[in-house]
Design brief:
Blueprint lengths: L1 E5 L6 H14 L3 E4 L10 H11 L2 E2 L3 H5 L11 H13 L2 H8 L4 E4 L2 E4 L15 H8 L6 E4 L6 E4 L4 E2 L9 E5 L6 E4 L13 E7 L4 E7 L3 H10 L4 H5 L6
Parallel strand pairs: 1-2, 2-3, 5-6, 6-10
Antiparallel strand pairs: 1-11, 4-5, 7-8, 7-10, 9-12, 11-12
Length: 246
């Protein structure tokens, strides 16, 4: 089975449209969204509609829950709080209802998915280093756990190895073999707000038959997204960072 993963769209419609086109070209059997459909970007409602219609499973991210009052917003930075308050105001009731019912974890045969961490997912912690990952391996039993939240694509293994996170990830496509001797935490990166110094969005394909994870980077219309953010009255920083991939 081929499963397409996307995460951290953050109201970026231009990036989401390209991401879904990339997944369509890969012809997955399912599409899984690992949270943060909204937040930061100027098209939250359109992104919710598109993800709801296209994804087979959608999980909750911290911004999704924050915009509907299910997560305390005081721990967000000032730009995040402003974006959450703005997003909460512009979402339609049916968008809010959809985000409010999203679950934190999805499990399937041989893999699971969660926005932040498999242990205490509603605390919205980050898996940034091998030591963080080793702790989390104790809290899920599947071979792979797919996550988002960090906005940086990469892989941790239960042997303390890492790939991608903190290392240059320049190729358009990178395929990583899945070994029988390892377990994996796979961060699929961000569709709408990458933070690894690369302005391109990212999606991933897990092929359970061929035992591979493929990362796919893509360009989108960054200037158009920036224009929308500024026109909406959102903090200019949220537009500026898209051109830097930070």
């Amino acid at each position: 089975m081929r499963i397409g993963f996307l995460s951290d769209i953050h109201g970026n419609l231009e990036a989401l449209e390209v991401a879904l086109a990339k997944l369509d070209a890969a012809n997955p059997d399912k599409i899984i969204c690992i949270g943060d459909v909204v937040g930061y970007g100027a098209d939250p409602g359109k992104c919710v509609d598109m993800v709801q219609s296209r994804a087979d499973v959608v999980l909750a991210g911290n911004h999704d829950w924050a915009c509907v009052g299910k997560t305390d917003i005081t721990y967000f930075n000032k730009f995040g709080r402003k974006a959450i308050l703005w997003t909460s105001e512009v979402l339609m009731p049916h968008h809010r209802a959809f985000l409010a019912q999203l679950q934190l974890i999805h499990t399937d045969s041989g893999w699971c998915a969660v926005h932040s961490t498999p242990h205490e997912p509603s605390r919205w912690r980050y898996i940034m280093f091998p030591a963080d990952a080793i702790e989390q391996f104790m809290h899920f039993g599947q071979k792979l756990c797919f996550i988002g939240h960090l906005h940086i694509p990469g892989i941790f293994t239960d042997h303390g190895e890492q790939f991608g996170i903190g290392v240059a990830f320049n190729e358009e496509r990178i395929t990583v073999p899945i070994s029988n001797d390892h377990r994996y935490i796979v961060n699929i990166g961000s569709v709408g707000q990458p933070r690894d110094g690369d302005t391109r969005g990212c999606v991933a394909i897990y092929d359970s038959d061929n035992k591979t994870v493929e990362f796919i980077r893509f360009f989108y219309e960054v200037p158009r997204t920036q224009e929308k953010i500024i026109a909406a009255g959102l903090p200019e920083f949220l537009a500026e960072r898209l051109a830097q991939g930070v």
